[in-house]
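pinging the channel bc i need a second pair of eyes. not urgent but kinda urgent?? the chain im working w is below, pasted from the shared doc
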Amino acid sequence: MVWVGEFGRTPHVNKSLSRDHWPHCYTALLAGGGTKRGFVYGASDKNGEHPAENPVSPDDLAATMYHLMGLNPHTEVHDGADRPVPVSYGNVVEGVIA
């Protein structure tokens, strides 16, 4: 199972007493499929503004999911113009694999 949002929330409340979208630091949850159990990978800075340890990009997450499904994340497919495109530009996050 994979759960991830497209944004986190700003670390500070705005003038409307709300929090805006924050693309710099957010959470993903992986369960089953060969991932470690009860494990936290990476960390944000003290304000939750930016990754401080082991940042993971969306491409890295995709590469890891493909790998766990038994697919090489660097496999090339062809787009509508018959150009080769890798299924992911990321790298497998070995630290989350059981």
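so The chain is about 10% helix and 20% strand. and The two ends are 15 Å apart (CA to CA). — does that match what u expected or am i reading it wrong
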